[in-house]
Each structure stands twice: as C-alpha cells, then as structure tokens.
Amino acid sequence: MESRKILIIEDEKSISDIIKYNLVKEGFEVDTAYDGQEGLQKAIKETPELILLDVMLPFMDGFEVCRRIREVSMVPIIMLTAKEEEVDKVLGLELGADDYITKPFGMRELIARIKSNIRRVDSSDSDKNMQENLQKFGNLTVDMNRYEVRKDGKVLDLTLREFELLKYLAERENKVFSREQLLEEVWGYEYYGDIRTVDVTVRRLREKLEDDSSDPKYIITKRGVGYYFRRI
Question: What letter does residue 147 receive in the DSSP assignment?
C-alpha cells in the first residue's frame, strides 16, 4: 500500500525529529518544515495528506499558516500547542483546524489522532463514489454524495469536520448526543477531555447554517445533555 505523506511544521527540531521517527516507523512518508513560511510553501506545493502544525513558529505563526492553507486546501490539520489557554485552542478551530493536541503529548495518542483524521478523509472519498443522496431541511439542501451544503441555493463553505458533524446529526434527527459521544463518533478517537472542540465546531456550523445563530433552528442545544438536529 502506498505510504501516506505527513507534513510536520515545527520549529523545535528535537520534537520534529522524534515525531518523524515514530511516524516513519508507522509507515508514513514524512516531510518537515521549521518555520511558518517554509511550512506554508510545502503545504501548498507538496499536497500532504495531513499536516501537524505548531502554533509558535518563526516568521509566520501557526494560526496564520492555518488560515492561508484553508484558503486553498481542506487537508486535515492537527495543531500542536504548548499553551494551555483555551483561547488558543478555540482560535485554531475557528480558523479551520480539524484537531489540536497540547504538548507534552504521548506518541500513541498523536498517532491515533493522525490515523483517525486520515480515515475520515478516506471515508469521505469513498462516500463520494456512492449514488447521489440529497436531503432537504427547510432552506438547506445537503448532498451526502458530494459533501456539499446549499442554503437558499448558495453553496456553503464547510470544512470536512463541520460537514461530518452536520451529516452525523442530520442522519439521526431529534436524537440527542453528548459532547463526549460526538467527539468519539465524529472525530473518531477516544474521548481525551477536549469537549470544547465540539462546542466550537457547533458554533461555526450555526454561523453558516442559521439565519440567526443566537436562535438556531437546526442544531439545538439540550441543556445539560448535548446537541441534536431538528428538521424544519
């Protein structure tokens, strides 16, 4: 089987080398960049299948790199951060990162996250080969085949993770799921305590789907429990 290419954008060479060593052992092809500008160039030019992106980088920080990558590519991005501040994690997700992991992290956990995100992309590619499956929800049209959502006929710019969350909830309308359940089922790995990831993704989805995100019609909060999708 062809090896999958991972791009590590990390300015601390010792950390980058350890990650690279372990990923190569797992059968991945690995490229590295040690500053934000070099990382952005390689991300666009070499089309990796997943990017590990540090937040604190020379020349261009990880947030700006993430924002610029998202202008041209939906490649899965896992942000690496040494910071504990919630605002940094939220900002990464707001800019389109698929996941984040805080240093120091266990290599087994990192590899599990990488494999999970790659599986999600493989699954979406496989789904695109299935027969067309359009669903209507009020002023939304969801094309499960093309991974495309239209609102009043206009295509919405959703990330793969946002679409996966919408698809999961819409296919199970009116069923309430906890944040922990959604993290495990949609993000595809065991719950590590990052339930804020779900909240941020829900908020981004609401801003794109809803006429008034403060009074949502589709993705509803069940206070103290979680979220569910309501057909209108």
Answer: T
Q: Can you tell me the mean pLDDT for 105-123?
A: 85
Q: Among 71, 95, 126, which residue terminates a domain?
A: 126
Instruction: Give CA torsion, residues 146, 151, 153, 155, to 10 deg.
Output: -50
Radius of gyration of the chain (CA): 18
Q: What digits encode the pLDDT tens for the residues 59-96?
A: 999 999 999 998 888 899 999 987 666 667 778 888 88
Could you tell me which residues come within 8 angstroms of residue 78 by beta carbon, excluding any fewer than 6 positions away? Answer: 50, 51, 52, 53, 97, 98, 99, 100, 101, 110, 113, 114, 117
**Quick one: 147 and 122 in the same domain?**
no
Show which of 70, 99, 126 is a domain's final residue: 126
Q: Are 6 and 29 in contact (CB under 8 A)?
A: yes
pLDDT value at residue 130: 45
**Can you give the pLDDT at residue 103?**
86
Closest CA to 42 of 10, 2, 79: 10
Domain containing 77: what range? 5-126
